[in-house]
Design brief:
Layout (H helix, E strand, L loop, with lengths): L8 H8 L7 E6 L7 E7 L3 E6 L9 H13 L17 E3 L2 E7 L4 E2 L5 H17 L13 H11 L10 H15 L6 E4 L8 E4 L2 E5 L6 E4 H12 L9 H14 L4 H28 L11 H12 L13
Antiparallel strand pairs: 1-2, 2-3, 3-5, 4-5, 6-8, 7-10, 8-9
Helix pairs in contact: 3-6, 3-7, 4-8, 5-8, 6-7, 6-8, 8-9
The structure holds adenosine-5'-diphosphate (ADP) and the ligand N[C@@H](CCOP(=O)(O)O)C(=O)O.
Adenosine-5'-diphosphate binds next to loops.
GO molecular function, one term: ATP binding
Catalytic activity: L-homoserine + ATP = O-phospho-L-homoserine + ADP + H(+)
Keywords: Amino-acid biosynthesis, ATP-binding, Kinase, Nucleotide-binding, Threonine biosynthesis, Transferase
Length: 322
């Protein structure tokens, strides 16, 4: 996240007047994150996160995101619980933006995740997939191949400003990945952005998952691909086979993968890598810099794309090694 929209104390006091959360003691903008504006609030009752939904979040999708958090939480998954307003609604408005108040989750995200963290993330991901099986709402993935196409059209002409040759290289990948994209694999509700900054740990144990604002219905194994990309590469862009093996073993200890999912894994990893390369590239080229805005490097994900291009089978990710 970041802070795209600032709020005044008066606005916040008026907003909180609609919620059974006591009186405001303090608030501050949170610089971490990418998509929305987040504030940490302390009230006389407790601590909360206030999220103002920004450009990539459609207001019509909020019942899906907030309902999913409620659903998962009721099923024992540790995630924030949206706070209901006095009138029973989950969504309010502040500074002209739709906004929600969610409970604060204790824990820290891991800047250098270990093999043990990766295993726990794999387990938690599979547990979420299973817990969401009976979630009644549906949301199409806005960042599936069709959505990537819109992003790519919006920035391919300027891609070489970030790296000479990027437009040609990514264009070839884009065509290959989209041309082979699978549709006949097990699907369900996926988190779709389970990066280390969205998973908290306390004393070495996974304590919670946040940021469900890309969640949608899509291929379950695509969520694993995103996790392999986000958790199992080192800073020098090398793939850590031990971490990959642990993440996959953690997942499979809860939900074993079908052969077709394993076969598709290299392509799903390539697809997930280009998806994050594209959102980062688009943001890099279109969002103005600001003190509370943190843009992410698209080339980090170009390096992932290059790695996955030469993978031939899921065993190269560590399937069956842990
Ligand atoms: N429920 C929560 N409990 C504790 N901290 C939170 C919670 N939700 C968000 N945060 C903090 O806000 C930051 C940004 O939140 P995130 O949902 O990732 O934003 P965005 O959707 O904009 O990327 C997180 O890295 C974390 O520090
Ligand atoms: N995880 C994405 C950006 C989305 O940010 P988040 O703070 O919502 O996780 C990326 O790394 O590109």
């Amino acid at each position: 996240m970041a802070v795209y929209t600032d709020i005044s104390e008066d606005e916040l006091v008026a907003f909180l007047g609609e919620y059974p959360v006591g009186t405001l003691l303090s608030y501050k903008g949170i610089a971490e994150g990418t998509e929305n504006s987040n504030f940490l609030l302390h009230t006389s009752d407790s601590a909360f996160i206030l999220t103002l939904y920004e450009r990539r979040v459609e207001t019509s999708d909020l019942p899906f995101f907030l309902g999913l958090m409620e659903h998962l939480s009721q099923k024992g998954i540790s995630c924030p619980l949206p706070v209901k307003r006095n009138d029973g609604e989950l969504i309010g408005q502040i500074a002209g933006r739709p906004a929600a108040l969610i409970t604060f989750l204790e824990g820290m995200w891991m800047r250098n995740p270990t093999v043990q963290h990766c295993r726990q993330v794999g387990e938690a991901l599979a547990q979420m997939h299973i817990a969401a099986e009976d979630f009644p709402l549906q949301r199409q993935n806005a960042l599936s191949p069709e959505g990537w196409g819109r992003l790519w059209d919006g920035c391919r002409n300027r891609a070489d400003e970030v790296m000479p040759g990027l437009a040609k290289e990514a264009g070839k990948d884009f065509d290959e990945i989209v041309g082979q994209w699978p549709s006949d694999l097990p699907s369900g509700v996926i988190h779709a952005d389970l990066f280390p900054d969205n998973v908290f740990f306390l004393n070495g144990k996974l304590s919670g998952v946040i940021d469900f604002y890309f969640a949608c219905n899509d291929l379950l194994a695509y969520d694993i691909a995103t996790c392999l990309n986000a958790w199992c590469f080192e800073k020098d862009a090398s793939y850590n086979l031990t971490k990959g093996a642990a993440l996959l073993a953690g997942y499979q200890s809860v939900r074993p993968l079908q052969d077709a999912e394993l076969e598709a894994l290299p392509l799903l990893c390539r697809g997930s890598a280009i998806r994050f390369m594209l959102t980062r590239l688009y943001d890099w080229l279109t969002i103005p810099d600001g003190p509370l805005i943190k843009k992410r490097d698209p080339l980090e994900y170009l390096r992932r794309m290059r790695f996955h291009r030469q993978i031939r089978s899921a065993s190269e990710y560590g399937v069956g090694l842990a």
